[in-house]
Amino acid sequence: EPRFGHTAHIIRNHLVLVGGVGPYGPLGLDVVNLISGEVMKYSLPSFDGVKESDLVMLHNHTSFVKDESLIIIGGGGNCFSFGTHINSAVTIRTKTFIPLD
């Protein structure tokens, strides 16, 4: 699916696409197996450490991988009616979305 405002990482044989905005609105975390072409789609509140009540806007952010964790920093948005939201940092263990080979 086309997107902009995302970040991307290669972890083992997988392309990890973090957030962004697509033609139908904001996107979550997509993992593409570069060998089989299989695509797995996740939304952030489904991960340990991310509370259901947390608002996480996955655009205008940066992310990096360190010690088997995906760390997402920043991101958020500004709405003239509702105000400004800036995300807290989010850490997700890569084993929760990439199978160990």
Fraction of residues in helix: under 10%
How many helices?
0
Proportion of residues in extended strands: over 45%
Q: Which H/E pattern describes the elements? A: EEEEEEEEEEE
Strand order of the largest sheet: 1-2-5-6
- Gross morphology is globular
| pLDDT < 50 stretches | none
Number of strands: 11
Helix-and-strand structural type: mainly beta
- Report how far apart the termini are: 26 Å
Largest sheet: 4 strands, antiparallel
What does it look like?
The protein is mainly β and 101 residues long. The protein is 0% helix and 47% strand. The chain is built from no helices and 11 strands. The protein has strands spanning 7-11, 14-18, 21-22, 25-26, 29-33, 39-42, 61-66, 69-74, 76-79, 83-86, 90-93. A 4-stranded antiparallel β-sheet has the order 1-2-5-6, with no helix packed on it. A 3-stranded antiparallel β-sheet has the order 7-8-11, with no helix packed on it. Strands 3-4 form a two-stranded antiparallel sheet. A hairpin with a 2-residue loop joins β3 and β4.
